[in-house]
Amino acid sequence: MIILTDETKKLIKKLEKGINKDLMQANWEAMMEFAPMHSGSQEEEQAVQFMKQKFEEYGLETKVHRFEAYISDPKFSSLKIISPIDLEVQCTPYRQVGTTTPEGFEAEMIYIPPDEIGYAECRDKIVLCEQRTSGDWMGLRADFLLRLQKMGLKALVVIEQDDYMPTVVHQRADFSVSGSPTPDNIDKIHTIPAILHISNKDGQALKKLVKQGEVKAHIVSIMDTGWKTLPLLETEIRGTVEPEKFILVNAHVDTPPFSPGVVDNLSGNVAVMELARLINNHKDKLRRSIRIAIWAGHEIGRYAGSTWYNDAMWNELRHNCTASYNIDSPGAEGASKFRAVQITEVMDAAQDTIESVQGHKVDNLRWATRAGDGSFWGTGMPHVSITTSRPPELYDPHVNYSGGGWWWHTPYATMDHGDVDVLEMDVKAELGFILRMTNCPVLPYNFTGYAEKLLSILVEMQEKANKVRAYFNLYPVIERAMDFKKLSAELEEAIKRKAKSLNEDEIKELNEALMWISRHVNPVAHSNAGPSEQMTMETFGALPFPRIAGIIDLANMTLHQSHEFKLLQNKLQRQRNIVEEGFYQANKLIETTLAKLK
User: H-type helices in 172-226, by residue range?
Assistant: First the structure.
């Protein structure tokens, strides 16, 4: 339920009118002077100090944390065909750990199509392949790359799938380990010496040559991998009634390698500075606090900044953070509407905000994939991002995200692809959502739509795996999810009846219950790691119920009595217990809360 007092409504309108486009434009252009900003670079430090100065100029106290991060910074790459013709192909290096020597190496190049890669012989070869593997638009990732590494290939040359703008190459990354590695997962990071991306246009031409056979190529791919000290800028605007509770507003300061990053994420940093300036002038009107964190290590550190922050501030985040609100890619040229809203317990607040800005809600919802750095699912708070998008006719379907602009993660992400008028619309939405989360007396959590989606996902998973239902099924979890849906509806109705008559102590008790219902369900719906651990970036919240998603793999096995079948069956049994427990605890807490509201 969303309860906006007249005072908060007036405050939102006042803040919207106070947005200073000239100031945002000036800050934007000043930030562009530092770009590109690779993590660990002098340029990144300059940008952090610039933002620190601006926050302090706007009356906030700041802190710059320094932390060690394991990052992989691409420096240089080249691809030359040396036989049967001489040809230099423009390329960009993948963000990975592996590196060649400065001299590089020569080897035979072969082409392997998507349905054969990972199976076809490739030892000591340079493999030309498609970015899109069978059934996976994100392409070659994590376990798949480890498999190729074990097969002994020399290098990968990946044909960019972007046929919307076939002459660009998007900088792409290793999706293996989230944050800096540990002894338990360092081996999950592949060390293939070189992975190069080439444009769709060049790739199609090169593919014709390579298919003829007897092609030799020379490759160089230089990476700087190791531990570096990175900055993390933090500030806070304290609330007056529940100051210990806060929304975490976050953005990354580093840009993609070789990219000016005009809306990835310099525009996001500009938006955060403007939000801080506006809200801090009225901090006496805030009920809860606003924590702002600007982190490095996003692009080449596998979310090193946000995972370090989760590690360092875990207890406080676990017990006091109402949501992780990420600001990334606002203000993109041509972005005229808001993109689909994530399905979470706070999607009503997001929809209410969007309706207040553009006059109507968004028509579609999407599973709550990562909102920027998805580093907090195990900790339990919802991840949210409200950002404008380019319309379908201007949206490059092969990017992620920059508003859907084709320049995403390229050297073409220059100032002409930023629009301060669009940024103003984005900042209005940021203000609206943040103020709803800070000033609604009862936290605007509504689990009804979320519960319905969770149940439908589980039912669909079970239907796809009915072949093995006699050996393993999701029926116990589905039953708990059905109860969660029913109880969530009852809770929402009870809050609507009682919220305005509750005293402050009762409101705080209710808010605490709402947060913990969320903390019971979110980790099992989105993560397969422990509360203080990180799941792999390969799923980062995009795969629903990752603990039990393997039921589909179980159903796809041919022999139900095989050794592999029984191993996976045992694993899924244990993981199902964890998921069921999450729903059990949430349901139990809702029942207790309903009794108190009655």
Answer: 200-211
Q: What is the pLDDT of residues 526-578, one digit of tens each?
A: 999 999 998 877 666 678 999 999 999 999 999 888 999 999 999 999 999 99
Flag whether the pTM goes above 0.85. yes
Element (H, E) at 493: helix 475-498
The answer to whether residue 518 scores a pLDDT higher than 90 is yes
Tokens, residue 470? 């006699």
In words, the CATH class of domain 6-70+228-439 is alpha beta
CATH 1.20.930 domain span(s) along the chain: 448-597
pLDDT digits (tens, 9 = 90+) for 392-413: 999 999 998 899 999 999 999 9
pLDDT at 432 over 90: yes
Name the segment(s) of the chain with CATH classification 3.40.630.10.
6-70+228-439
- Does the structure show a pLDDT above 80 at 512? yes
> Which secondary-structure segment (H or E) carries 89?
strand 87-89
Please tell us whether the domain made up of 72-223 is placed in CATH 3.90.550.10. Answer: no
Rounded Cα distance, 541 and 558, in Å: 29
133: its two tokens: 């593997």
| pLDDT attached to residue 302 | 85
Residues 418 and 28 sit within 8 Å (Cβ to Cβ): yes
pLDDT digits (tens, 9 = 90+) for 168-222: 999 988 778 889 999 999 998 999 999 999 999 999 999 999 999 999 999 999 9
Residue type, 38: H
Q: What is the CA radius of gyration of the chain?
A: 25
Question: Strands 288-295 and 126-130, how do they pair?
Answer: unpaired
Q: What are phi and psi of 552, to 5 degrees?
A: -70, -40
In whole angstroms, give the CA distance from residue 288 to residue 248.
Answer: 11
Amino acid at 282: H
Q: Name which of 21, 9, 13 is nearest 271 in CA terms.
A: 21
Question: Cβ of 61: how many Cβ atoms within 10 Å?
Answer: 11
- The pLDDT of residue 369 is 65
pLDDT at 137 over 50: no
CATH 3.50.30.30 location in the chain: 72-223
- Tell me the pairing of strands 195-198 and 242-252: unpaired
Q: CA-CA distance, 353 to 75, in Å (whole number)?
A: 42
pLDDT of residue 373: 79
371 pLDDT tier (thresholds 50, 70, 90): low
CA neighbor of 526 nearest in space, from 579, 486, 569, 472: 579
Q: Alpha-carbon distance 217 to 82, whole Å?
A: 5
What does the angle CA 2 – CA 310 – CA 545 come to, to the nearest 5 degrees? 70
CB 468 within 8 A of CB 44: no
Cβ atoms of 69 and 232 closer than 8 Å: no
Return the number of other C-beta atoms located less than 10 Å from residue 111's C-beta.
Answer: 23
Residue 540 near residue 548 (C-beta atoms within 8 A) = no
Note if the bond before 84 is cis, omega within 30 degrees. yes
Phi, psi (deg, nearest 5) at residue 225: -115, 135
Return all residues near 590 (Cβ < 8 A) that are at least 6 apart: 484, 487, 488, 490, 491, 513, 517
Q: Count of CB atoms within 10 A of residue 591's CB?
A: 13
CATH 3.40.50 fits 448-597, yes or no: no
Q: Compute the distance between CA of residue 79 and CA of residue 220 in angstroms, rounded to an integer.
A: 7
